[in-house]
Amino acid sequence: MENHPSYPVLSELLQKYPRSAGSLFQTYNDLKYAQSWNDLEVLDLSSCQRGAFRGRRPNTDTLLYVVPCSLSESLSISWFHKTFEQLEKPTNIYLAINSEDSSIVYYKLSPGIVKPPM
């Protein structure tokens, strides 16, 4: 992992939060290299003990937030509240759920109860 081009950008958080290091590394590489996000920033979510990302999809101006996690993790409602609070209450976040086979599924989460569009 240390020889990968992404390592210098992520090294501080990979060492600080080893339990979520794999999902952080995998999600960053997906957003940066596979999806070609622009202005991708690494964020330290200390209250959630992990890193996260802020950036833009190609050809868009909207800032999006992505929080990586593992499929095997158990997350609580209070954890989601902490996440939204530390990210300064965005309208939504994307939870990047990483599995052992290196696949990632992105779920869009909104605070509270939100009626889906019809």
What secondary-structure arrangement, pairings included, does this model have?
Blueprint: H1 7-16, H2 21-34, E1 38-45, E2 50-56, E3 64-70, H3 77-86, E4 93-98, E5 104-109
Parallel strand pairs: 3-4
Antiparallel strand pairs: 1-2, 2-3, 4-5
Outline the structure in words:
- With about 120 residues, the protein is an alpha+beta fold.
- It has a single domain (about 5-110), classed as Trna Endonuclease, Chain: A, domain 1.
- Helices cover about 30% and strands about 30% of the residues.
- It contains three helices and five strands, in the order ααβββαββ.
- The protein has a five-stranded mixed beta sheet, with helices on both faces.
- Helix 1 (about 5-15) runs antiparallel to helix 2 (about 20-35).
- The longest helix is centred in the first third of the chain and has 14 residues, at about 20-35.
- It is globular, with a radius of gyration of 14 Å.
- It starts with 6 loop residues before the first helix and ends in a 9-residue tail after the last strand.
- The mean pLDDT is about 90.
